[in-house]
Recover the amino acids of this structure.
């Protein structure tokens, strides 16, 4: 069951347990370049990002980030480090939220000023703490930046924001070590009532980052912890979204889009199933309606699994069968399978639209 949290809107996107878990990403364009940044924001949004973070590295970037927020179809979070005045300016100029690490903006007075600006703008603040930002006194107390130290560091800032009457908070406690990231978020979930932003920092390349993020984020979501997620991968942020969406879909937390079930192939497979599964996936990637599609290699498990699906292919010897909602609708040669599948898919989508 999903952990109960404070819920609120960031522009028109729900945050917290009253709303679905959202996918976030972050642009890597030059934040001073409105055109390039906006284009990337929209690309990420089209892929499935509900919220996009844009770095505001200096005061000169603030008008550009605010302009991106004005024009973008999804809420924009300005990512600010070190200079609290950048966060205030971004809020005054209309960004939907700011992400700050209170440990590096220079004390509680400065945090209070950012909170004031967020209140005036009716914007949210994401407070981030990571193992590198734990204060000296907590490091002395715990000996190293363990989950207990990170959560205690966060607690001080959360209580301070609450004392100012501010509750539009999203919390993130991140680590590049997956077991630490899981533990620290479990502790934060017990201690705080605010939405949690989940992610494994510096997770790595597409391959290793996908594994670490899926394990870290997935384990927490499976236990009802987490309200918004970011899969961090080195390079093009467009790679992050399918992974994040895949994590949510695999846990049944996102119903939209096609769920493709395909077998791993084995000695019984007698068609080029890997190619067929890739082609089916490409064909289905823009479909938003929830559909289950099965691509199976043989008659042993194939028809059974395929029958469970809205549409399915079960391979045979250089040939295959297409099932639709449990009924055989085609038997054909391997070369004709994809075309037959495509026409059945089109029929299915047209009929469901006309219902
Ligand atoms: Fe092998 Fe058939 Fe199972 Fe695919 S469905 S892995 S071909 S037994």
């Amino acid at each position: 069951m999903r952990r109960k949290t404070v819920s609120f809107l960031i522009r028109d996107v729900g945050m917290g347990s009253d709303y679905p878990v959202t996918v976030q990403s972050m642009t890597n364009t030059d934040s001073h370049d409105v055109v390039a940044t906006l284009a990337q924001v929209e690309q990420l949004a089209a892929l499935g990002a509900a919220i996009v973070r844009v770095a505001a590295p200096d005061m000169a970037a603030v008008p550009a980030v605010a302009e991106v927020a004005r024009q973008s179809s999804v809420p924009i979070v300005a990512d600010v480090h070190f200079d609290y005045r950048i966060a205030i300016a971004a809020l005054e100029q209309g960004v939907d939220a700011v992400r700050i690490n209170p440990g590096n903006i220079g004390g509680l007075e400065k945090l209070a000023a950012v909170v004031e600006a967020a209140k005036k703008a009716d914007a949210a603040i994401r407070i981030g703490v990571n193992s590198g930002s734990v204060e000296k006194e907590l490091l002395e107390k715990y000996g190293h930046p363990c989950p207990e130290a990170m959560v205690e560091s966060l607690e001080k800032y959360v209580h301070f924001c609450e004392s100012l009457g501010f509750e539009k908070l999203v919390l993130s406690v991140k680590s590049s070590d997956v077991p630490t990231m899981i533990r620290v978020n479990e502790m934060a979930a017990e201690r705080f009532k605010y939405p949690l932003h989940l992610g494994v920092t510096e997770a790595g390349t597409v391959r290793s980052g996908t594994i670490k993020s899926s394990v870290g984020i997935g384990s927490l979501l499976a236990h009802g912890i987490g309200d918004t997620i970011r899969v961090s991968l080195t390079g093009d942020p467009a790679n992050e979204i399918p992974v994040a969406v895949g994590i949510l879909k695999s846990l049944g937390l996102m119903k939209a889009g096609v769920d493709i079930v395909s077998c791993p192939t084995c000695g019984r497979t007698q068609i080029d199933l890997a190619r067929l599964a890739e082609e089916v996936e490409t064909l289905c990637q823009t479909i938003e309606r929830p559909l289950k599609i099965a691509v199976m290699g043989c008659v042993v498990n194939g028809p059974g699994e395929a029958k469970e699906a809205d549409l399915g292919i079960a391979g045979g010897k250089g040939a295959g069968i297409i099932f639709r909602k449990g009924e055989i609708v085609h038997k054909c040669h391997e070369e004709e399978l994809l075309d037959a599948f495509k026409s059945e898919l089109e029929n299915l989508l047209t009929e469901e639209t006309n219902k």
